[in-house]
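Figure-free illustration: sequence to structure, shown twice.
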Amino acid sequence: MRSSQDDAEYRVNYLSFEYVNALYALDNGWTGQGVKVAVIDDGVKGVSEMTGQISGLSRDFGSVTQNGSTSARNVVGDDYAEHGTLVAGVLAARNDGRGVQGIAPGVEVVALRVSNTNLDTTDEEERVTIETGAVRRALDYAGTNGIKVANVSLAKVETDTPSPLWSTMVARYQETGGLFVNAAGNDGLDHVAGYLDLNSTNDRSWLFVVAADNNGSTYELGDYSNQCGTAAMYRCVTAMGTNATQAVDGSYVWFTGTSSAAPQVSGLAALILSKWPQLSGIEAGDVIIETARDIGEAGVDPVFGHGLIDVEAALSPVNPTLSNGAVQTAAKGAALVTPAPVDADAIARQALGDVTVLDSYGRDFRGDLSGMVARPVADSVALERRLRIQAGAGQASFATPDLAASAGFTRLRVGPGENDWSTVMTNGSLAWRAGRTWINAALNSLDDVSASFMGLAPVSDAVQAYAPQARFSLGMRHPGLGGTLGVEALAGGDYGASASGVVASWRKRGTTIKLGALDERGAVLGTPTGSGALRFGDGARSVFVEAAQDVQLGRDWSLSGYASLGTTSLKLASDMLLTDADRLVTTRFGVTASRALLGGVVRLGLAQPLAVIGGSGTWTVGSGYDLANRSLLYSQRQVDLSGRLDPLVTFGFERAGPRSQAALALASSADARDARVLMRWRLVLE
């Protein structure tokens, strides 16, 4: 829906404004308020659209000749200020719901009149003339008074002759940090007027403007407009060459030429400086160049230079950075991916909901970074690993008293052809006995201590819950302490993350106790952490203890349960916004009741996925801007990372016959927000 700013007054200049996305500034309340722009021209008359717009700093540097006598005029605008009045209207005509409005209607126009008026002649061309020396004095005045933008919709008459006066006056203005916006000229030449005066002493300040045709459909240079040319194209942009404005007699007229295009650029510079007064005029010009829309040959070209000015792009961040007060990094590509056990909403709301960042020009932007927080599907990596195992198209195994091996595999299509299939191993194990000790190696093995419900319930394998990337294991088991002692080394990686660790266990008659230590790189609790300064650590170190027990309840029911408690330390780096974090306390538990029924086995359960129940993190983010010191202000925001305890209620039924197997699994949270259903049927063909 268009804004209220898109009214009849705006629509008078609709084509010109739409080409350069001018409505974006008005929608955000940016009008150039508080900024003074020097209009160095033949004067600015106080017509109705200029009421209250002309600054008290305005000066007349010209003269008047009458009855053979020449004297200082000291009038910044009158009926002979035709050109400058038109220019000022394009720049700053009032936004009052009547007539027309300028591209920056909040600007104060400093009218610096540099024309001489000869009332003794009847020749219209000789009556008003521009004095080059007055232009120099006016520009020096603008620099001395801290006026950051000077609009000069005047071009040299002699385009093929260097002018030391023009060259040096712009160089002096550059020393003050001012932006010299200069009309390219209306002679249809292949270069701007004044290109010979552009050199290393003034080229940071000088910005030429060529004029685009307002045809409403394409990007074409006006047939009258000079081109940027190869010598000046890197200091040249394009603006719209036809704008509605107000003439000295109060009428509303169309004004065409590079003189009309230049104040669009000056107005955009004022919009930038109004929002970011810490910038110089030169820096505002750099932003305009950087954000211009490429409309000619790819890149900077001799016709359009850097391209058409774009108000929205110029007022939006250019290569913004994220900073924690010590290190700055690019915001582009940064993302925060939170593990499912962590409260992602709290991070998004409390840490990143209102942040101030800087772009490459030192401009401060206040915004919401919560959209850069990704919330993965709970148990996504672990679930993918389990489904990969269960999706096997085949299984092979053999066993002897001292050796056992098994392998699961599936077939994947790798191309469109009839024979474009590949067989991929999904899981496997190898175990051999040496005396009383079993040594085992495995890929994607599961050590569930409770029924898996076909992968829909939270995994009961502790390692898979904490670090599912650890797909490979090598270990040994040996009788001891009245049961079986075991130790396994684990390692593996996937999706740019890896994990390793060691787990010690003791098992006896349905009782299992485990102690584990895991090290993750590029992931936390099994979830890749994101990228850039927003990432949730560079990995983690976790330790856990788990207990599981199976018991028989009467003749029909059996009960199995497990619970674990762990702590996780995040690995932090100097460039992260997450600058400190407590140890995260984690837990998980589950209980399953099973019995034979209807020729199969029915299971009822309650299972809590891995959850953070304690611990907080501190994000150091920009929270404001110190204009005097041109620097960000920072705050430290502590966020409780505890997630929700929200166990799933589970139901499963499995029945196996000599030639078929059927299974059904259901899982749902108490509020049915997370509901999962899976059915499987297999037919064995002989």
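We now fold a second protein in the same way, so the two outputs can be compared directly.
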Amino acid sequence: MGDLLLGIHGGANATAAIAVDGHLTHCVQEERLTGIKGYMGFPHHAVAACLHAVGADPGDVTEVVYGSRSGPVDHCPRDEWLRRLAAFHRQPALADSEDHLLAAAPGALPQRVTELLRRDGLTGARVTYVDHHTAHGAAAYYGLRTDPDRPYLVLTCDGFGDGACATVSTWTAGHRTEIARTDMRNSIGLLWFWFTHAAGFTPHEDEYKLMGMAPYARPDRARQVADILHTYLRLDPTGLRLHRTTTVSIERAWPDIEQHLRGRRFDDLFAGLQLFTEHLLTRWVRNAVTATGIRDVLAGGGVFMNIKLNQRIAALDCVDTFAAFPSCGDESLPLGAVYHHLAATQGHHSVRPLTDCYLGDDITRDDAQQAVAGTGLHLHEPGRIEDVVAGLLADGQIVARCAGRMEYGARALGNRSILANPADADIPRRLNQLIKQRDFWMPFAPALLRSHQHRYIRNPDGLRSPHMMLGFDTQPDAATDMIAAIHPADLSCRPQIVDDDNATGLAAILRAYHTRTGRAVLLNTSLNLHGHPIARTAADAVTVLLRSDLACLQLGPYLVTKPVSTC
């Protein structure tokens, strides 16, 4: 079995990860096991899943690392959480809680985590707590570095954690030097949080919908909104910290901000917030590069889920290389905590970078057969499943795919995906009608072969984007082949650039599809029912098939179809 190291994070997007003999082996979010999207609480089920994946019992774990030093850890149902948010600005006394969070509530978290671990049978484990932003930075540095001896500039930015919302650090040969830290009362992440809540969406989950609406607005009206936001939040004199102009925190100032924005169109508000974010944080990055002299930039924390911001940073003339850790919200904290601990105990050279995000459950033949048994669905085993899937896609079918190990994080990367022909402009309507029910303005995304990327996107620096963490402008004639997988307003896209020799099976489908159609790109969206997490198991995938109007599902080596099907 080897030496076990369990990484955990409780609270929003609760997650667990496990390393065996210093190698990251399994990672899963609690939402995938509970069926509660964005699960808030302790990752009991995820801990059990990690132990099961490596054949371990709770008593086998002697080391646990936790990706924060403070914060809530008990389950909070969504309705209760939303009720608290609705009351937040009506209760000024709650401002005291901000000082409590800034003080990191010494002792409160360790006591509760110990109790919860004991409940799961981990009675003998020693628990180490890693600072929230150090964990975000460690995920980016150890997970993404290409040369362990090269210095990197590592930036973190999120809502808040351990009293902070952003850091600037240099990492050299495993040594971290923090240059600047912004306290949570100056948080651009919390500004996005309250914009999202005010628009009737769910914070921690729907911020991407604001970014998706932004390109529809008129630029002049977006600039007006951005100008207003700049009067509330800017950079301090060093240029390395965010700084509010109000006495109260940005979070407490939200009612005043909202009042100044009242009467403006929602698309203008979202576009202004996006423009403001790009202006403020690209200046922050430029200042950090100037201050450190390091032009290789890595990023972590939930704000860097914003692909348009990442696109702007990557294009800066002062930046040589840029990458954001895949799914870099708080679900990445256990990974960063694991990396940090391994580097401290075994030496930084021993920490292996993240090769891919396929860290969850695999789909076996038995899994597939048991999931289909008794459902009335048909199970076929073709000789070359990738050729069959590509043929269905070329014929205009929409095909769900649940094969190989599940992806960690927020993005479906081919193993728990729904695939379709992106050249068909009617596909978004069909997908939304069949299953997705996405907001009408939200675009779908493409998966494309690296060897053919030049046909579809502008990527002069050859940036890697295997995890859909970067936005790209498309080529002038790309719409012919991928109209259904680009943004209708600005014709940009969020591609998964797939290596031609990628072993997950998606590359083989793309190659076979290219042979049939001449196109090396597919629409790729997540395999889930509306409002539910991405499917994890074969049984989850079959449930999606049965409860939607989808007709075809690749399930491991099999093709599953409904009794009356056009497949």
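Summary for the second example: Residues 98-104 have pLDDT under 50 and may be disordered.
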